[in-house]
Amino acid sequence: MTLWSGRVEGKLAKEVWDFLRADDTELLPYDIEGTRLHARRLGAAGLLTAAELAAAEAGLSAINPSDITDDDEDCHSAIERLLGDVGRKIHAGRSRNDQVATAFRLYVAAACREAREALCELALVILDRAEPEAATPMPGYTHLQRAQPVTVGHHLHAWVEMLERDLARFAFAEGQAAVTPLGAGALAGSTLGLPAAAGVESMRNSLDAVADRDFAVDYLYACAACHGHLSRIGEELILWATSEFGFIHLAHTAATGSSMMPQKLNPDVAELARGKAGTALGRLVGLLALVKGLPLTYNRDLQDDKPGVFAARKDLRLTVAALGVMIHGLELQRERMAVAAADPLLLATDAAEALVEAGAPFRDAHEIVAGAVRDGSYVAPVGRARPAPGPGGAAAAIRAARARLGA
Ligand code: ARG
User: How far apart are CA 150 and CA 129, in angstroms?
Assistant: First the structure.
């Protein structure tokens, strides 16, 4: 029995039903939360008695994902069915259009919060590794060629800076999701004069309220940008774990072997983290394409906005957790990094700067040192202090963010 069976004669073809049904069980807890908000509006307006409201609240608390059947068109229909008698009253003054947008916003807000908590944890794992290595030398790279000496602490703090910006992007998306379309109805409100949902800001324009999915775009953008960072981190771990670099040994808690080559220890975790970034980007592009041509207001195309978001939440959670284990356990090969960082050529810029201090224009100094490198007469300067790495300001920001999240 559909919510709209009164309008359609007979039964839909099975192929059509299978095509139309939403795969949205993951939304259920958030739809229950949104339905509770709506039930209270009905109670406040006298359209549900105190007893009916109590029955609705109790019924909502008792619903489980396994209660949804193949005969339910979506989780919204299932909730109405499962609430029994009071279910027949609960849809007054709302449509599945404001209902699904409400539930989806609650879902995205929770996913953003979860992402922020997970990223704080990962950043703290990296900080734990970075802080003891403030003076551990390693080569810094441009064009993947050794460039200038840096420290391991400096490098790992750069990863934390990336994650700190991701935290801000998820906080922004969470804020965008934190308003409610409830009251917009199908598109133009209702004549029932219901009060606004309590405790949450209502959206201003009912047409926009049911049609807008920018909050989900913002979330998928935050996911794509974050996965981009996790991919870059993954790529560095992959390089560092090669025999060619030899900067790290993989912990056995986060390494894999080969089914054929007995000697192999592979960085599959980092590789999969690198791979996930492509899929994450695809989800963002997919949603942008889904919404780009839609006329106001709701169109069923919008049912397809959710699977990518569900998958994005799961992928981010798994990727962040696994990379955390990998980074926590990796063994730095400090001696190997120190040897690489001691390459005298890494101080060629310093040699040019010494000539600048002695009065040479920088371009002349550059040419003189480059010539010495070419003809083999280059000698590294001694006693020049390299700048200290940045103050690691992201560390304080991460710790403050974590305290704010109450984790
Ligand atoms: N399952 C639908 C979705 O996810 C719910 C809204 C259906 N609304 C409608 N007018 N058919 O978008």
Answer: 16
Distance in Å, CA 16 to ligand 1 centroid: 15
Smallest CA separation from ligand 1 atom 7, residue: 96
pTM passes above 0.90: yes
Cβ < 6 A, ligand 1 pocket:
22, 74, 76, 96-97, 100, 298, 300, 302-303
Tens of pLDDT, residues 168-226: 999 999 999 999 999 999 999 999 999 999 999 999 999 999 999 999 999 999 999 99
Q: Where are any strands of DSSP class E within 303-348? A: 331-332
328 as an active site residue: the answer is no
Q: Which residue's alpha carbon is nearest to atom 4 within ligand 1?
A: 303
Range of the domain at 41: 14-88
Rounded Cα–Cα distance for residues 216 and 181 (Å): 14
Q: What is the CATH number of the domain that holds 134?
A: 1.20.200.10
143 in active site: yes
Q: Supply the mean pLDDT for the chain.
A: 96
Last residue in a domain, options 29, 57, 88: 88
Q: Which of 325, 320, 327, 228 is nearest to 274 (CA)?
A: 228
| Number of structural domains in the chain | 3
- Give yes or no: residues 331 and 368 share one domain: no
Contacts of 218 (CB under 8 A, 6+ apart): 169, 172, 173, 176, 177
**One domain for residues 349 and 229:** no
- Can you tell me the mean pLDDT for 273-277? 98
Q: Is residue 99 part of a domain?
A: no
